[in-house]
Amino acid sequence: GQTGKLMYVMHNSEYPLSCFALFENGPCLIADANFDILMVKLKGFFQNAKANKIESRGTRYQYCDFLVKVGTVTMGPSARGISVEVEYCPCVIANDCWNLLMEFMQSFMGNHTPGIPSVFGTKHDSIYSPADTMVQYMELFNKIRKQQQVPVAGIR
Description:
This is Mediator of RNA polymerase II transcription subunit 20. It comes from Scopus umbretta. Pfam families: Med20. Helix content is 31%, strand content 29%. It has helices at residues 35-41, 94-109, 118-123, 130-149, and strands at 7-10, 18-23, 28-32, 54-63, 66-75, 78-88. A 3-stranded antiparallel sheet has the order 1-2-3, covered by helices on one side. The protein has a 3-stranded antiparallel sheet with strand order 4-5-6.
C-alpha cells in the first residue's frame, strides 16, 4: 500500500571494496562490497530494476595535483553522454578550492565548464567524501535518464 522509494546501488573503481547505496532524496550508505549479496537475499522487500543500469567507464589522468577522469556514460549497449570528474588532490574542503577547480576546468572545457555542484551547498566547510562524488554521479545519471524519457519531435 505504500509508495516505494528508490535506492540506487553504485560502485566506484576508486573504492573497489565499497558499495554505495543512495536513497532517493536521502542519505548515502557506504557498505562493504558484499552489500549486493545482501540485497539479493532481501529481494522480497526490494524490486530490482535491471533495465535501468547505467555506468560511466573511461580513463583516469593525473596532471600535477589534479586528477581527471573522463568517461563514456552508457545505458545498456548505447552511449548516452560523457562524464568529466576533476579532483584537486591536496584539498579536502571542496569549497576552499572551487575557484581553482573552475579555472583548471575552463582551461580544457571552455564554455562547457559546469557551475558549482549542488552537493557543495550542503557541505559548506566540511570534508569532501567519496559519498559526495557518488551523489554527483547519481545526479548526472538521473539527468541522462530524464533525457531518454523526453519524446522526440518529428522532423518535417
